[in-house]
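Hey,

Quick one before I head out. I ran the complex with magnesium ion overnight. Inputs first:
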Amino acid sequence: MGTRLLFLAVAAAMPVAAVAQDDEAARRRALAAETEVWEPVPPVVEAPADGVPSDAIVLFDGSGLDEWEGEEGAPAAWRVDGDAMVVGMGTGGIRTKRDFCDMQLHIEWRTPEEIGGMDGQDRGNSGVFLQERYEIQVLDSYENETYPNGQAASVYKQHIPLVNASRPPGEWQSYDIIFTAPRFDADGDLETPAFVTVLHNGVLVQNHVEIHGTTEWIGAPSYTAHGCAPLSLQDHASEVAFRNIWVRDLSDG
Ligand code: MG
């Protein structure tokens, strides 16, 4: 008799415990839902392996220099060689016809395999100029001493790269650059400076560093107000090649 009573008591208590457990689970799910954010839903971007993201603007894929012009607006005088374009030494830099503000940039570059007795800043020098003003240095910095704030992947004369991720001359290298453009108020005064993050051959070399103004070879950098502006590539008397250049425009609107 005693055993039977105990059995009944246990049988009666079990559903109560189960209900309490369900209530607790529901309460926790409701709490979790309070911190779920369902909008906005990010747009879908196709990102193929070794390919270009579907929302990128292709600036050069080997098919021609249609996206580019000379520094003064003349036709771009660099030569296309296979899937690459090569600095036309003495012809000046080239720039995009499009203007950019905030952007993600992918660009691949190769300095000449033949060093030809060159060293320091004379070896494979070019440059990626964000908004035509802010230079991420391109240089053969493989076993090539120079001032570190002017070596490859430096923000020229402003920030030394965290590491030297350079490959030997003649090998293709890459920069992935995330750039936040400076903001100026209606009077042309600086509101917020530019910032840049750079990966060199996939290695972080500049981690959201502040750009102090237009790149200067001599003297301190400073800002002059400007709007969105082209991306430009430097002719620094070295036959540097570029390929696979694309941009994702990160500006609002
Ligand atoms: Mg340079």
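The pocket of magnesium ion is lined by residues 125-127, 135, 137-138, 234, 236 (CB under 6 Å).

Talk tomorrow,
K.
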